[in-house]
Design brief:
GO terms for molecular function: aminoacyl-tRNA deacylase activity; ATP binding; catalytic activity, acting on a protein; proline-tRNA ligase activity; transferase activity. 27% of the residues lie in helices and 29% in strands. The protein is α+β, with helices and mostly antiparallel strands.
């Protein structure tokens, strides 16, 4: 059992906060000896870290198997031809890692496996009698992040569980989606995470049937959750709907006129310089949609939501125009552009709030010039009104219950209804009951396994170190011998080490020749749920038991130790 003795256990701890580690999870994973950086966004998992990973994987496997999914393993290296078939080779973007073999053939390092799994099922399932089927794997993925940060939360190589369901109809997909959704709730609950399932955008994965993200609440989360204070509604801020319940402004409908606005480009500069409210301003943002210009207009106190614009236009390529493009197309720089007198070739979309304005102010498409008393529909043509803005705190909830509040979250899981996006592109078809060929209906379900470690730590730490939940802790107990030179302490420690393992506990045994303070500090840093210390009362058969989470301590005689530990185990 030498591997459990801390003097031989490969878990190099660090006293000081490592440079470049900005969030608690990154700092503590380095300091406690879970990981070491090999390159930017690429980490080695040390024995303590890998034990946590394996415990998380065990929970995932149990819940996935219970939900009827079958485990397999696909290659990380994928032929580029598959990505060309699906149309994602160019669409995925610079995050896709590409390489060539010695024969100059093109491959990618998989960030996800929709193409591979679809081609596999396409080649081996041809009848409705073999459907439904759900397959999953736990495997390393690769994304060439522009700016890896926050340790394993945003890395270039990471461990992921990805699952894919194949059904013969939409009803089957709905059933599988619900099964995976419930499995995810069970997984994150068993890992003792405080999380929310929120409506989300499908992003590069695609599919329009529906999607939810599972967010762990955390102050360092990169995603913002919009939730209702009066119901269970929750959505990623990127797609949270804004109800069309605006009241029309009661302003006189004067004729439009030009005004000079020297150096007033921003909303704040205009409100200050013109002494008006933000609600009176019209903000214009130019997009390039499949090589054509589209101007999106919202109210000055709102922000255009690019994701909603992308989803509404259903275009292949949507991006914000560059500064040079704005000037070339609109005749003025951003800050002075607007829908009035815009080139006829430009399509104009307007957020629902715009239609309530009767005396607005917008850019005149001329430097240092704006227009006032602007009346939408009267002074410019609008192709389409819609919900094109970001939700804000205080907005009414889309379900009509309560108002919107914000919270930050770390995405640890995502479930998608893909529909036929990949099966049609890759020809994954089956013969139905009538002998007709139909595309398979797909779902996709991912969990960031390595991200989960960081998320768990963000919710379970204090100023002294980690505090592992019982379900994922790398060891059940931390056994310390304060002074191995004292024969009674060492003898009791050795006996307990063996007896505790015989009783079924996974034990890390600190028998190092270090000062007591070093051992206590390392124990708190590693964060195992229970610490047992063989100290000055070892000759009386008494040990000190400390609970890491609340810091409570109790002296216990070894004759009562096992029953006490089992009672703790039941209540943790």
């Amino acid at each position: 059992m030498q591997k459990m003795r801390q003097q031989f256990f490969f878990s190099p701890t660090m006293r000081d906060i490592p440079q470049g580690a900005d969030v608690p999870s990154h700092q503590l994973m380095l300091r406690a000896g879970l990981i070491r950086q090999t390159a930017a966004g690429i980490y080695s998992y040390l024995p303590l870290g890998i034990k946590v990973l394996k415990n998380i994987e065990k929970i995932i496997r149990e819940e996935m198997n219970k939900a009827g999914a079958q485990e397999m393993l696909m290659p990380a290296i994928q032929p580029s031809e598959l990505w060309e078939e699906s149309g994602r080779l160019d669409d995925y973007g610079p995050e896709l890692m590409r390489l060539k073999d010695r024969h100059d053939r093109d491959f990618v390092l998989g960030p996800t496996h929709e193409e591979v799994i679809t081609s596999l099922v396409r080649d081996h399932i041809t009848s409705y009698k073999k459907l439904p089927v759900t397959l999953y794997q736990i495997q390393t993925k690769y994304r060439d992040e522009r700016r890896p940060r926050f340790g394993v939360l945003r890395s270039r190589e990471f461990l992921m569980k990805d699952a894919y369901s194949f059904d013969k109809d939409k009803e089957g997909l709905d059933t599988n989606y619900e099964a995976m959704y419930r499995a995810y709730e069970n997984i994150f609950s068993r890992c003792e995470l405080d999380f929310r399932a929120v409506e989300a955008d499908a992003g590069a994965i695609g599919g329009k049937g529906g999607t939810h993200e599972f967010m762990v609440l955390s102050k360092i989360g990169e995603d913002t959750i919009a939730y209702s204070d009066g119901s269970n509604y929750a959505a990623n801020i990127e797609i949270a709907a804004v109800p069309d319940v605006y009241e029309k402004a009661e302003e006189p409908e004067n004729q439009i006129e030009d005004i000079d606005t020297p150096n007033m480009k921003t909303i704040d500069e205009l409100t200050e310089g013109l002494k008006v409210k933000k609600e009176q301003l019209l903000k214009s943002v130019l997009f390039i949609v499949d090589d054509s210009p589209v101007l999106v207009v919202c109210r000055g106190d709102h922000e255009v939501n690019e994701i909603k614009v992308v989803n509404a236009l259903d275009a292949r390529d949507v991006r914000m125009a560059e500064d040079t493009e704005v000037k070339e197309i609109m005749g003025a720089e951003a800050g002075f552009i607007g829908p009035v007198r815009a080139p006829e070739s430009i399509t104009i979309l307007a957020d629902n709030a715009v239609k309530t304005i009767t005396a607005g102010i917008c850019g005149a498409n001329e430097r240092d010039k704006h227009l006032r008393f602007v009346h939408p529909d009267r002074d410019f043509s609008i192709e389409q009104y819609g919900d094109f803005r970001l939700v804000q705190e205080g907005d009414p909830s889309p379900d009509g219950k309560g108002t919107i509040c914000f919270a930050e979250g770390i995405e640890v899981g995502h479930v998608f209804k893909l529909g036929t996006k990949y099966s049609e592109a890759l020809g994954a078809e089956f013969l139905d009951e009538n002998g007709r060929s139909q595309p398979m209906i797909m779902g996709c379900y991912g969990i960031g396994v390595s991200r989960m470690i960081a998320a768990i730590i963000e919710q379970n730490h204090d100023e002294n170190g980690l505090i592992w939940p019982k379900s994922v802790t790398p060891f059940d107990l931390h056994l310390l011998v304060l002074n191995p030179k004292q024969e009674d302490q060492l003898e009791l420690g050795e006996k307990l080490y063996q007896d505790l393992q015989d009783e079924g506990f996974d034990v890390l045994y600190d028998d190092r020749k270090e000062r007591a303070g070093v051992k206590f500090n390392d124990s708190d840093l590693m964060g195992l749920p229970v610490r047992i210390t063989c100290g000055k009362k070892a000759n009386e058969g008494i040990v000190e038991v400390k609970l890491r989470r609340d810091g409570s301590m109790k002296e216990v005689h070894v004759d009562e130790l096992f029953s006490y530990l089992h009672s703790l185990n039941e209540n943790m």
